[in-house]
UniProtKB/TrEMBL annotation:
PANTHER family referenced in this protein's UniProt entry, alphabetically: E3 UBIQUITIN-PROTEIN LIGASE TRIM
Chain ranges of the B30.2/SPRY domain: 1-191
Gene3D superfamilies: 2.60.120.920
Matching InterPro entries: B30.2/SPRY (IPR001870), B30.2/SPRY_sf (IPR043136), Butyrophylin_SPRY (IPR003879), ConA-like_dom_sf (IPR013320), PRY (IPR006574), SPRY_dom (IPR003877), TRIM/RBCC (IPR050143)
Native source species: Vombatus ursinus
Name of the protein this chain belongs to: B30.2/SPRY domain-containing protein
Amino acid sequence: RWPSCSLTNPIPFYTVNITLDSDTAHPSLKVSEDGKSVIYCDIKQGLPDDPKRFEDQLCVLSQEGFISGKHYWEVEVGEKSRWFLGVCYDSVERKGAVKLCPGTGYWVIGLWNGCEYFIFNPHRVSLTLRVPPRRIGVFLNYEAGKVSFFNVTDNSHIFTFTDKFSGTLRPYFRPRSHDGGEQVPPSSNPPKIFFSRVARG
């Protein structure tokens, strides 16, 4: 437990390099060759059916999975207005819609319409942030049963889940298709990269 709950403490010492697993990505999401970014495509890609691939959720998991230890990573969200990120069990159902709460194996934070930050625990709980984050830090302490989120932009603590884990946890990333809810004409370019970089340090 960090006394100040901020990034001035040693949390970054536990930084891990995260790479997105394209085999888990929804067919409308395209993962970059280096596995460090993901972009939404209007037309689903013709990908082979894979039991690891999410069918309904527009999300992707990391290649890395954790069953012990302390791990920290950061995600650039920029000025995007809708997203979810955090961790989930590797065993979560891939082929249907689900509520993103601890009871279903998800410990995530979300943003909706550019101003509504929230978590489900199990019901929706609104969060108040002083400064809109451009980068989110995620700290997993497996043995302590904690997943903490930090606003790297102003060096502040956002929220911590406390639970008891019993399986492999994988970093979870869920961009929204048409950011901000706008209609994207067929002739226009697809939305830009959502998580522009899964960053280290």
